[in-house]
Amino acid sequence: MNYKTIILEKKEGIATITLNRPDKLNAWSAQMGAEFKDALNDIDNDSKVRVVVITGAGRTFCAGADLNEFNVAIQEDMSPAQRVRNEANKDVLGCTEIRRMLIPFIASINGSALGVGLTLPLACDIRIASDRAKLGAIFSRVGLIPEFGSTYNLPRIIGIAKACELTFTGRIIDATEAEKIGMVNQVVLHEDLKRVTQEMARTIAQAPPLAIQMGKLSLYQGLDANLHTQSVWERLVQNYLKYTEDHKEGIRAFLEKRSPMFKGH
């Protein structure tokens, strides 16, 4: 696909998706959604990619949905039942795909992340924010609820009480508060955001891929499992990983006092 609203770059095991409508504050459009999901499919089929970074072009991560498109959509002569059928099972942002894909995703939040623009980072595994970032679940301001997995992810990330507060009020918070409540992993100076993000991405890209993939799968599975079930799962996965070449390479590198070269098998 010839992308018009995003940029996809790959380098040294790191894939970077940049939302690229800076003149529209990277407002999420149907075209951007289609291109984003195509990029995810491209990455999913590329065994060389070990970590994904998502960021925005210009001064904003994503200011939310393109309300001009929303306005056109609501003018269509369609019954409520038809609208429900059309929207059922849609994952326009690819949020369930992000969770299904076993490679880690890092959201590098370079500016405002509002509405749909917050939903996307919430689906990622790690969130690093610029000190200039503003974040808000502003859906209630236009008579909507958080969607695309937000009502699942947000309470698990920041707790149900704070999730209720931000959902009901539509309040926009700064990066400092976002870090305090656990919405983002860390806040860095705006000029350091790209460097810090790339350093973390390189660290992950150089780690043993199978262990990272199984780690991601296990952590999210554990959110909905009981202790016994999860403990059994861990033993099964650990026994599998113990017989991989990467595990052997990790042991050899440690004993030989050198950096390991993990290959993902």
How would you describe this protein?
- With 265 residues, this protein is an alpha/beta fold.
- It folds into two domains: 200 residues, Alpha-Beta Complex (2-enoyl-CoA Hydratase, Chain A, domain 1), CATH 3.90.226; 47 residues, Lyase 2-enoyl-coa Hydratase, Chain  A, domain 2.
- It is 46% helix and 16% strand.
- It is built from twelve helices and ten strands.
- Helix 5 packs across helix 6, helix 6 packs across helix 7 and helix 10 runs antiparallel to helix 11.
- The radius of gyration is 20 Å and the shape is globular.
Layout: helices, strands, pairs:
Layout: E1 6-11, E2 14-19, H1 30-44, E3 51-56, E4 60-62, H2 67-74, H3 80-87, H4 95-100, E5 105-109, E6 112-114, H5 116-123, E7 126-130, E8 134-136, H6 150-158, H7 160-169, E9 172-174, H8 175-180, E10 186-188, H9 193-205, H10 209-222, H11 227-241, H12 245-255
Parallel strand pairs: 2-3, 3-5, 4-6, 5-7, 6-8, 7-10
Antiparallel strand pairs: 1-2, 8-9
Which characteristics define this entry?
six-stranded mixed β-sheet, Lyase 2-enoyl-coa Hydratase, Chain  A, domain 2, alpha/beta, 2 domains, 2-enoyl-CoA Hydratase, Chain A, domain 1, about 260 residues
Number of domains: 2
Please, what is the average pLDDT? 91
Q: So what's the oligomer here?
A: single chain
Structural class determined from secondary elements: alpha/beta
CATH top level of the largest domain?
Answer: Alpha Beta
CATH A-level architecture of the largest domain: Alpha-Beta Complex
Report the total helices. Answer: 12
Major β-sheet profile: 6 strands, mixed
Beta-strand fraction estimate:
15-25%
| Inertia-based shape | globular
N-to-C terminal Cα separation, in Å? 31 Å
DSSP helix fraction: 40-55%
- SSE series: EEHEEHHHEEHEEHHEHEHHHH
Q: How many beta-strand runs?
A: 10
> What is the CATH topology classification name of the largest domain?
2-enoyl-CoA Hydratase, Chain A, domain 1
Rg, please?
Answer: 20 Å
Largest sheet, spatial ordering of strands: 1-2-3-5-7-10
- The low-confidence runs, each spanning 5 or more residues with pLDDT under 50, are none
Name of the CATH superfamily of the largest domain = 2-enoyl-CoA Hydratase, Chain A, domain 1
